[in-house]
Amino acid sequence: MPIAQVYIPEGTLTPDQRREIVKGIHDVIISVEKLPPTGQTYVLINEVPRDHWGNAGTIYRPT
User: Would the pTM of this model clear 0.85, i.e. be above it?
Assistant: First the structure.
């Protein structure tokens, strides 16, 4: 039972985008591991507070 974790800045994704990410990651894992399409995978989407996210030494602050 594979588990994938995705970290995103808080409030970045809509519910539809979350569903797309979960489905896409599920499909990739199923394909790579050659499991049946109904195989169990778990995708955990972790929202990181906006001021706890950084890149290249700068705090991430999306507009």
Answer: no
